[in-house]
Records
---
Amino acid sequence: MNQMEGNILLGHGSGGKMMHDLIDTVFIRHFSNSILNDQADSAILNTGSSEIAFTTDSFVIDPLFFPGGDIGKLAVCGTVNDLAVTGAEPLFLSVSFIIEEGFPLKELAVIAESLASEAKKAGVLVVTGDTKVVNKGKCDKLFINTSGVGRIRRKNLHISRAMNIIPGDVVIINGMIGDHGMAVLNARESFNFRTTIVSDCTSLNQLISSVLEKYEVKFMRDPTRGGVATVLNELAGKTGFGIEIEESVLPVRSSVKAMCELLGFDPLHVANEGKVLIIAPGESASGIIGALREHESGKDCAVIGRIVNDHHGKVVLKNQTGGRRIIDSLSGDQLPRIC
Amino acid sequence: MKYVDEYREKELILSVADELKRISKKEITIMEVCGGHTMAIHRFGLNSLLPPNIHLVSGPGCPVCVSSQQFIDLALAYSRLQGVIITTYGDLVRVPGSSASLEKERAEGSDIRIIYSVLEAIEIARNNPEKKIIFLGIGFETTAPATAAAIMKAKQEHVSNFFVFSAHKIMPPVMEALVREGLKIDGFIAPGHVTAITGTSIYNDLVSVYGLGVVVSGFEPADIMQSVLMLTNQIEKGSPEVKVQYHRVVSHNGNMTARKMLNRVFENRDDQWRGLGLIPSSGLGIIEELSSFDAEKQFDIRVPRSTEPNGCICGQILRGLKTPPECRLFAKKCTPSDPVGACMVSGEGTCATYYKYRS
Amino acid sequence: MCLAIPAKVISVDGKSAKVTIEDVEYTASLLLLDDVKPGDYIMLHAGFAIEKVDPDEAAETLRLLNEIGRNSHF
């Protein structure tokens, strides 16, 4: 970003490089502290006798209802997952609604029910909240913010810090990538593709705790906006190592693959809402895969790559065709191409 | 996916790579002139599979990269008009004009919508009778027939609030212009989908006048590798020809129905290419009879003549004369998230690709 | 201008065709292509069928590619 000129663009919210630049130059600059600067999915707070994890997320998705979910369900999954990937056990949520004047009560009720149902499924309690109504035109139908608090055990404190990662560690994903982004795109745009693609949005805390119970995990993150590529780039940057991934083992649904080919998208850059990337020692890989497969949200898991002592700071994809290329972080939103 | 996956088989691609290493002796430079080819070469890492004496350069074949700054400026001016909805393919949204891009303009409140098919623009026009819907027509001979079909459909169905702002261009003039200027290449990989429409005769002069071989290529990695092999064979033997690799889609006569549609609506005109200047008879304009659908005729707006941004050497890069690191804006003022020139705008433009691989 | 994908024709209705790519369905325009029948494969570009895919030529290309592999072992 060049100085404090210009306006915010949609790209600043898309989870990639533009957003990170914005956070660094506008936010971190003003309220930097050692906890915040970690920029982990949840902040780990020491209360003296124990550690708690604390996170917040806002949901501004359009459309509000999409195949596989709605903004209410997403508002729970997003925050629960941010806690779970830091190794915390999610316990309590706050929910704040900002509602546009004129929004149908019926829809609000459906969304509230969705939210409640997902919270119940995830085993978290909504304990406090807030409601605001703004004049028509001042917000796009409905925005929801959820903040979450969870308990984190000492032995899992290292997970969000990415500090013990070494070459040879493997990269595992719990299932198919690109479902959420493509489901939402199809619901939102006028393109008229008819697909069975459904958002993968789901709470992952039970899946993750079953892995953490038995196996060593070095790092986890959920690849939401910006996709798998953006998380891996952040990790490569943070650790200074390279990351190599294999295209032939990337789990991608054939309909998502088809949509990506049609529009010129890269599944590695498409948002997910029910996925976790796990970095683990090679020896734990088969055990973790076994544990993941026991769950619906882990049945398509795969080892997709590894940390390497090469092309430092960069993520390289080995193509199914035998070539190699660098995978970058997302820069702004992906746009459908004709060229 | 059928007719796709078979041409991505590792063994096939590597065996062509081996054959290339075996037969290729000379130092040769091949130019491809299609954004789709540039993308595929990058995506499948084909450059790393070629022997070191074969150089692939990207030419001005991406409609994004060559849309003139003036076109963007005028599109932006249209978008600022009351009651106008701009409809566009996604490729164009980040292309910079002299002061803004469509993306930035959308942030200021203009109604700019990304569509997949031009026919969606007609639907939008029907659903918003009080608004004026302007479609930004970019693309070469592959895409222009669709725009032509849309105009004819709008005419037949009396959709009078649908307009097209054409920046459509055609391939052969720019290929010949580059060669006439002294472009040092040994042959062309020609765009398969453009040729599926036009047929192969459009490349005849390149062979007969300039002695350059042309192979019409598909877009899968095995297609491109086979095309490079066919062209290398020609160059090694000194026997330039127009040949088709992409037989499953391209016929020598092309698609007559699509061409008829094209000729029903468009005529050739001189056109500005970003970085390359004016190339005679290289663009497509809507004929007078259909001027009620021509945005340039229906909206009386002028924008100042725009000049290429200071320091931008896209023109020389598009010609293969300079490389991005030789541009003083490269990676400093001109980056993928804040592009100045055409070559950085497109995700796989020469500069964007170099940027990815820098340091 | 180049991004086109092979799609299978499921049904034809005047100047439109229902096509599928894997299990993604789309109604493509046939304004630029004649003589399209169910079972044909077309190249879908920006919502339009711009050409048919010739299965014999497709097979021939693969045959030639496979032959390159065999020949270069000599």
---
Amino acid sequence: MRGRESGSRLGGLLLRLYPRRFREQYGDDLLLIFRDAWRRAGSGPGAALERLGLVLDLLRGATAERLERSPASITPTRARLTMRDLISEFRQSVRSLARVPGFSLAVILTLALGIGANTAIFSVVDGVLLRPAPFASIDRLTMIWETDRKSGTLREPASIPDYFDFQERTRRFERMAAFSPITVTVSSNAGDAADAERLAALWVTHEFLPMVGITPILGTGITPAQDKPGGPLVALISEGMWTERFARSTSVIGSTIRISDSPFTVIGVLPASADFGTLQILGMAAYRRGFADRGGPTRVDVWIPLQADRVNANRDNHPIFVMGRLTPGANAAQGQEEMTAITADLERLYHAANDARGAHVEPLSAVVFGGVKPALLVLIGAVGLVLLVACANVANLLLARGAVRAREVSVRAALGASVGRLTRQFLVESAVLTGSGALVGILLALGGLRVLLALAPASIPRVGAVGIDARVLAITLVLTAVVGVVFGLVPAMQARRRGADLHLQSESARGASSGREHRRFRSGLVVAELALAVVLMVGAGLLIKSLWRLYQVDPGFQAEGVLKAEFQLPAQYPQRRSDWPRWLEIRRFGEEVQRRVAAIPGVASVAIAGAHPLEAGYTSSIVVVGKEAEAADWPEPSIRLVDSGYFRTMRVRLASGRALNDDAEAPPVVGLNEAARERFFGTQDPMGHRVRLWGIERTIVAVFANERFHGLAQDASPALYLPASQAPIPNGSILVRVNGDPSSIAGALRSAVREVDPTVPLHAIEPLTVTLSQTTAQRRFTMLVLGVFAAIALVLAMVGVHGVLSYTVAQRTREIGIRMALGADRESVRGLVLGQGVRLVLVGLGIGVAGALATARLLSTLLYGVSPSDPATLGAVALGLGAVALLASWLPARRAARVDPVAALRAE
Amino acid sequence: MPDRLLPLPPAWYHLLLALMEGERHGYALMQDVAAESGGRVRLGPGTLYGALKRLLEIGLVVESGRRPDPLLDDERRRYYRLTPMGRRALAAEAARHLRLVELARAKRVLAKPRTA
């Protein structure tokens, strides 16, 4: 489907190259045929060649129409376009360029890198940021977060009673809707773990889909009646699930699927775009991020009516995310103003539950794109610099060749060739160069885009829908073509301006002012290239250092050697509130899994935890007995349920106190992390103090080192550890420390759990190091891309330095010969050329470092533990660039030193 | 008049030959030329319309209306057919080819054909 679309888009673009009259008369038919042929080309490498043939054919046709060539010269293309044909097509124009292969290759590769990198990056940016969102008028959609002044959090989910109060009181929002993430087990038959899948799901209110403007592609949405507490069990499924599980059969509507062991009737199928932004919204939340904490590119597959119970829901409990649609004409600031007033009212009315609570209204697009925008903008800037460097380099190369040919031009002009004819010749040559560069560039863009998408982290919204953007390609092509043509024409212009005889004059004309002026311009270009390369290298260096700093961070636990598997116990495990924390069956499941998994060969230790160490989990308000007054401004700590194997398995250090291995009958105990000790007790010793949580008083018996459960880049927030024996774990993670490769025991782990209970499926099984690396995926991506750009810029700048110095040496051969004849030794000649290189590099470095200092601030949101003006990075870049530049200068310098004075003086 | 056009560019020759079967739209022409030449001649869309434009200008071909092709899709396509002059030009070109082939035979360029 995308092939056809890109076919007609590309066709439309190519059609523009035709004269207007032709287009008006034949355009639509031509396009139709182009599209037909494009579609029929199919897929695979043969198809790519076939399509390339189609594009070339249109380009040929357009050129012929533009030039109004005589009809007889139109010949049909031969049968299937082969590689050999391609080569022969190019052969003729390439022949003259082939005589200077180094030059041609340098120009083509430079152009290709510029075009390819730009097209790839801009296509990503276009697909992710610029393309319209699947939601209707997204500019009026906002997230309505709750805030907590005590913990300083700005993005918390809301309580159900608050949501209904918001809805009732608002005038600025024409609609509000709520949703909540869960992970569900979906199966066709009850109790069949083999058929069961763990899928991401959303509870949504009936307003949600109409509010964002998503309509089911099959069936219906959720009615208000279906959204009432105790309403029917109905669900919508994703297009993906419809395809995979139901082969796109329309009979899915009305059929029954089992979701977490209850029968649900499927009422509709939602398009693939329906979960737009879900991962980004959840990823921003302070807690209750659900499946977004998995880090991977999770797709939402099931939507279930929230059926929120306004009367019985607890105002202390914050399970839902609220989204609102502003009334036409209202803006987010007005929405914020109103929500601040509403939450202030609710705080007065429900002081116990809503103390210190406010609202934070944030445009949805800021939430969805906010996380990636800085990185993508930096990459756009960087790729723009790469294009500038590429253009400077092409200009430089063409000028160098033009200078070499100046004499040839003069001779031919003197022999009667018209300037127009010469101009045409140069133009054709430029066209061949830019054309080849463009072709290679398109291939690079296609390949590069594929690589980019493979590396792209899941945090980038709708990255799956990115394709090459024809507009971007066209703009880049035009830009580079302009550079190619303008600088390709320079020698002809020089011939026109100065008259034909200048370069035929005596040798002395060579070293004269025109040559110097020319050289100065080219040196300027090289300095610009060097400076831009420095800016890019500093940027890349800072990102590399940030990542390195991040890897140096002690996360407080050891992920290496640990396999993680997530589970959720099905509904037949009784979880009655009144029985808590007895919950015998759940405890038994945990103990049994402990026992069986520990027996697997190669397993060093096993833990069961409510949240694995990279999962933020949930928070709850607590009271420390005797500190009730202070507790008013305490942030809610994260509540972490862990069994007795946890600290051993994760190698979390016990800072003080004793292990948490009390059994169910022992007096209730709790452990703190160091952040909680510091926040709640300051310099006081917390041991023996009592904490009240969920109606139970627990004695503090241990303090553990901080685990960075918000990811490496964020400090740990206060946390409480509850032993599983006294707070059973109905869903969470099994963590297994393995001697050797952790993934090797995945199969054994599955069967061990199946032996305990075949109805419990495991999901998200992966080494914890993989989970950890996902938390840095976006940084790695940005760093990698910027690093590649910096490398490209460096190579291009070196080509520039080498080119300018070689040109100087060639131009000054006679002068060097005279110097040597007059007694200058090879050392000093070499020094002369090297000196020129060093001057270029120093000026380039100076400007580049200044530029880097000015622009590195733009990177600051992407940096970690390193300042934008980090002297070590600047120094390393300066040294590195200097060293490479000296190498690039060395070759021409050596050539200069080898000049034979006799030959140099006799020449010409 | 047709004689002045000779020799016809190969693309024209193939197109006129394909139109001998009756009126065709552009895509069908592309396919017919490929099929009749055993896949050896392929006209891309650009070449095809470049040639068609000239054939229309000179008057060897006329447009015969727009309608969808029931075998393809609902898009309305332009159909083309030969004019009497187009037919004459085609015949003249074919005769020219024949004379050339006979000349080649006389000089034994080709393997001797079996006597009929």
